[in-house]
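Onboarding guide, step 5: your first structure request.
Type a short instruction followed by the sequence, for example:

Predict the 3D structure of this protein.
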Amino acid sequence: MVERARAAREASLDSLFVGDRHISGESYFQNSPMLGRLLAEWGDAPAGALYLLPLWHPVVVAEQVATLAAIARGRFILQCALGDGTEQFAGVGVDTRRRVPRFEEGLGIVRRLLAGETVSSDGEWSIERARIGMTPDEPIAVWVGGAVPAALDRAARLGDAWVAGPYAPPNALTGQVAVYREACGRHGRRPAVMAIRRDIHVGRDDADARRVADPVIAAGYRGLDPDVLIVGGPERVAEEFRRLSALGFTDVIIRHLADDQNEVLASFERLAAVRREVVED
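The system replies with structure tokens like these:
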């Protein structure tokens, strides 16, 4: 992960994010300490972390985010989502039926704490006069993930940006964008960012990319539909990113699908050319 963060910086990518996952049964570096380490390899471009808010106490989230924002040299972005998976919720003793109220109330508490307020609550959390020890120098941008209409409405209502997940095939994105934009208009919001997660591999050319990616995809990579994966040489990947831009997406948050570290680092290096081509357009 350290090597990948360094490669992303050297490729002049625009942001650095880590995810959030619990009770996975696999090795998984937790977001706050891992991002703290990676920020030493980064720079002054934006960075952030995803927090599945229903699984976190909001005071802890606010303290972690404020600390990371103090470490980061650039702007800090809080990504958040409901989360899913019976094992995750059962493992931390949270009822999945309480996901939405815990998310909405938790986000409100986090924002108030980061703004320096003293917060008490007797709702989803019992909190009495909580106040965090440090607050960020500038407001924390909140990007909210979601795909179904209720989640898109929540992103428009509560978020500074929307993050589309990695699962939606291209033919579903047009509808999601339309629902989100309609919800933004209904709530009087005009977010400047629409981001989308995509799993990718950039090869020397299309054939080289398929050589690396096809065995991974054939093994059922993360249960994702192959149509949502972006695989090819720099020109093809740039073309796919331009299609996402034409739908209205301003940011593509990438995750590499290859297992081999050398292939991943080479893909990062080629992303520099992809970025130049897309930005120049």
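Each response can be followed by summary notes, for example: The chain has ten helices and ten strands.
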